[in-house]
What does this fold into?
Amino acid sequence: MNKQDILEFMREKTYKPLTAEELVAVLNIHDTGEVESFLSILREMERRGEVILTRKSKYGLAEKMGLAVGRLQGHAKGFGFIITDQVGEADIFISPENMNGAMHNDRVVARRQSSGRNGKPEGEIIRILERANEKIVGTFERSKNFGFVVADDRRIRQDIYIAKGGTMDAHTKDKVVVSIIHWPQGGRNPEGRVIEVLGKEDDPGVDVVSIVRKHQLPENFPDKVTSEAARVAKISEEDYRDRKDLRQWKTVTIDGADAKDLDDAITIEKHGNNYRLGVHIADVSYYVKDGSELDKEAYSRATSVYLVDRVIPMLPPQLSNDICSLNAGVDRLAMSVIMEVTADGTVADYEITPSVINVNHRMTYAAVREILEEKDRDLVEKYQEFVPEFEMMAELCGILRKNRLKRGAIDFEFPESKVILDEQGKPQEIKKIERSVAEKLIEEFMILANETVAEHMFWAEAPFVYRVHQQPDPDDFGELNDFLHRLGYHISGKADKLEPASYQEVIAKVQGKPEERVISTVMLRSMKHARYASACLGHFGLASKYYSHFTSPIRRYPDLVIHRIIREFFSKEKISQDRLNKLEEFVADAAEQSSIREKVAEEAERESVDMKKVEYMQRHLGDVFPGFVSSVLPFGLFVELENTVEGLVHVSSLTDDYYEYLEDRLAFIGQHTNKMIKIGDPVKIQVAKVNIAAREIDFELVEE
It folds into this structure.
């Protein structure tokens, strides 16, 4: 009897809540060992909220009892939303008075209430299953007899009370790490004690360290993990057995200039009108075995985190930067997807196989772009034997991209930037990064490999981790269309049967127009966040029925897991039903863990970059920059600069007239001058105020 069996039994229409003893009896569990195992599984399911234990000690399912289980997404204003475990279920609004001591990111059970505002579901938190904020980073404030800490994460609204003996002699404005002693209850603030003083909030390096501690990112690998990495980080001729030998194929990697963990390599050649495309991915699962210390640590981290000044890798450098990295000029073990692609972009045939490769050249995006677009003489001469392959790659990329957009894939063109730091960690430059043909061809080839692998494993009926992106909620779709109507656009289709092609049509219409950026941003925000799941639910944004993450096992745990499953399913040994059941449970756990850690990584990465952008703009107080109006809200308008920095022009700073907000036109209009300021307008601004702690920049418009 496993977890899935219990859930299926409880989902039957005839099931009513039963005690543990009644469940043992009705399921005919007699053996003492089996009873103990069953009760242990039941307790674990209760702890996770997969089953609910009532006050009368009976077990039932949340969805049948008017309850919802999920993770609380807090908001700086005190309310929150529960992101439920139920696939396809709308988020549940929780008002400040119904939080009942829960804090941002806690795993909770809520009682559903009748739909509230706008017909959206509301609830009240009745149980906290798992606390997420045992340690909190913030700024210390000292008073005579006690202290308190204001959390850096604004979604944690309550100040943390620190008794006189728990301050570690911290001073006002010190950045500290607090361990929670008592959780908030009955209107009382949480209580904690200082366990680490990081330094003054404006000391060099304290800012990024605060982000690392705030998100509880691991900084060092345990000794047992690094020792194991040192033992396994070797390669010999024996490791080449039962592998396709591709060392004579012309192979390149194409990455950013500063990349050290090279996951993927490419080979390409033409057979008549068809292309033979080889996507070779580092065979990390060969080194990181199921249940090993390396595997446990990789599961815990689930992803590498790329902060503005450092990388926190998923795997130790002996693996990530050395034996697993597809470095040029050395033999490396890979998992290869070799696809025969027709002239119209269809995969006519494919092979997924363990391989051994030897990369000829480590190429950068910049070098490939200069070869293909700039026709740089020196680079063309240096890599002349590979120029035909680069041209073939660009040709195939164009075919695949055209096909993808034709089927309705949504392609947002958001400008990206990189903050350049000096040796002290101070921002020196914000560099805008353009997507060139080099980035696009790698993107297209990886998407094709991910789709090919996902579809193969779906039809093999293997337990698997899919990358899923579900269609937007009907309510979010309705709000998006209301917004688009104000700007003269409309997404066609019914709210419950949306097609990604309808979104792409709007993206194509606004391309190059002043409102392109804001429409793309609002459309993206209206869509659900992609995540990992053990069910194949499709990828709305890519308009793909089958999708997985296969191509980055050095830095993503789901990729590592599915490599391991592929190897197991390709072996000649029959997989037992018991093993299949265990795999089913594991991929579900791995998918949830990876989704949670991915969100944490994204938040930390974004926060570290935003922080340095604000710090950079502090040096430009009083300076004037060109920009454009990126959004208009009742309290003011946001302006984006050429370097992607965004700041607020508050309506109170518009002093040449009294301005009225026009919601239907997303604009401000002067009452006396009829001067209109709307989305997309080019403007000049002066940097008026910068608040690094709050990550806020205030601009003022400069008259031409």
In short: The mean pLDDT is 92.
